Amino acid sequence: MEADRITGPAKNLLRFGAAARPHVELTVATYLRGGVSTNGFLEAAREAGLAAHGLQEQGRFDWKVVAALRELVDRIRPDVVQTHNTKSHLLMRLSGAGERTPWIGFHHGHTAEDVKQRLYNQCDRWSLRGPRRLVTVCGPFADQLAGYGQSRERIEIVPNAVETPRAMREGELAEWRERLGLHPGEPVLAVIGRLSSEKGQQILLEALARIRERPWRLLVAGDGIARQKLQEQARAVGLEGRIKWLGLLRDVRPVYALASVFVLPSLSEGSPNVLLEAMAAGVPAVSTAVGGVPETVTHEESALLVPPSNPVALAEALERVLGDRNLAARLAAGALARAAEFTLDVYVSRLRAVYGRVLALPVGPIKV
């Protein structure tokens, strides 16, 4: 997996590795550049008790990594190799290791943040012909893979999982309120995730400009290439003083605990971890109906769903939840009940079954 910190897919992988023991022995590997010996992802893997390896590279297209990946697979001799993003899919197929070891490609969706990523996305059409199975997180992503020419028989759908968050003490929350300058009883909106155009935060700012007369504060947790542009947009529409830009947080529980409403304004999603986490935290949510979101929540029961790229509909939905305590409580209760269907135990069971089908053997201890 290409990761230098705990992204959504990285979080899922590490939680799976810890939860699946002793049935699955998981080893993780990522890429290191600039002479560093470790990064946030590898440190988190080791803290979780997993074996972790860094593959050194000199730049974005260092072909020596192909040989390093092949050598690592030959040395570990796993029962299964799984790759988790476009770069890893490409390097695995180029290495030829997938021809000797059962290989599963995990498709978490595509981003288009820069030229490098768009190039890798195109390579996926070729790279993902190599794995024995493709695992993705929702029906629309399975359709996308089929549209690339991948056989439906090779595609498995395994939605992400969520853990019930540890409750925060009132003293901790009071410290966070004071730190953020939040007033008692003040409605708090929360958005968590990478700051980039496909995540739709620019649409959220347009929507919030329409309800500027209503009291609210917005907490934005996350970082990305669109941060400066979003901050400029917030200033341009007069919302700068009502938004707290929190940056990357290793622990986002305080954001959920402080939130009156969770907002997911994305233009594209798979099985969004942040929505599942908000559900498990009992926070009413307003989300765009994209990707696997409608497979995760039901409109008017466990969230309010709106069309993507529609600031008017988003503003109206936010006003409904902010102005109707009964609706907010009903959505929160429905979300909690629905979150119970996405447990880590269910996720582990589904992936072990995929391993069994790939190996064509009864599921026993597996080295991945």
What do you see in this structure?
With 368 residues, the protein is of the alpha/beta class. The mean pLDDT is 92. It has helices at 8-20, 40-47, 64-76, 86-95, 115-127, 139-147, 170-180, 201-210, 227-236, 253-258, 273-280, 293-296, 311-323, 325-339, 344-359, and strands at residues 24-25, 27-33, 51-57, 81-83, 103-107, 133-136, 155-157, 188-192, 217-221, 243-247, 261-264, 285-288, 304-306, 366-367.
Give me the CATH fold name of the largest domain: Rossmann fold
User: Major sheet, described briefly?
Assistant: 6 strands, parallel
**What order do the helices and strands follow?**
HEEHEHEHEHEHEHEHEHEHEHEHEHHHE
CATH architecture annotation name of the largest domain: 3-Layer(aba) Sandwich
Shape: globular
Number of domain units: 2
Oligomer: single chain
Distance between the termini: 13 Å
Class by helix and strand content? alpha/beta
Short description:
The chain has 368 residues and is an alpha/beta fold.
Task: For this entry, give a set of tags.
368 residues, alpha/beta, Rossmann fold, 6-stranded parallel beta sheet, 4-stranded parallel beta sheet, 15 helices, 43% helix, globular
